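Hi Q.,

Before the meeting this afternoon, I wanted you to have the zinc ion prediction in hand. No need to reply - just skim if you have a minute. The sequence and ligand are here:
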Amino acid sequence: MGIFKRILLGLLICTVIFCIGFTLWLRDRYVVPIITYHHVGIPSVGKYRLNTVSVDSFKYQMSFLKRHGFEVISFDDLVEGLKKGHTFARNTVVIQFDDGYEDNYTFAFPILKKYNLPAMVFLVSDKIGAPGFLTWDEMREMEKDNFMAGAHTRHHVYLPEVSLAQARDEIAGSKTMIEDHLGHQINYFAYPSGGFSVDIKQIVQEAGYKAAVTTNRGKYYFNEDLYELKRIRMSNTDNRWSGLIMWFKLSGYYNLFREAKDPGLKKKLKTVY
Ligand SMILES: [Zn+2]
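Predicted structure with the ligand bound:
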């Protein structure tokens, strides 16, 4: 064999070894995407702008999931699967909402119902029934169609900046209040603005929650820890470029490209509108 052929063969073997190695490395880093929304409505309204996905965009994003054969599972199924070390199909997705705005009932719920997609909304319990927020009746109706409630504190406080006693009241108090109104156990919690600490995580566990979600905070980047599951915030512009951003966000490898953030990052408290 000539020297040229030997070099070519060597390169080929290296490429194959690299590809196998890379595939194995990626396999362990796949994360079921948990996509997150806040408002669904009219995005041009000033303070809602960044948190709002228009009704048309939301429709597009939900029909995208259907058209491309994504399997949307409930958060229950995700958490149970993660606990058992289950390998999820590569087209699995979870849908969530934060804060409990009334537009979730008005605009998102009919679309989710039409496509028969399960979802979860994390409620700021003391805001339920206030203008712009869901009512208990709406929440009860949504739960009949697999749009389930989780807890997101009583007043949307930024937990790393309050006393542990107050954090406990916010975390356990919202759970009790939602359970009293909906008549079933509330198992999941979302940290406001994703902020937590070791102590806060422990309070969440002690309050009886089975899992908690953050944003891109914390060190467990591949959802190894049930009390700091990473989520992907969806935006109004994800439909651009024929859904290319959607593919990327739903790929299961989005976390590889995100910056790790301190869970208790000093941050100005985000107001709930
Ligand atoms: Zn929130």
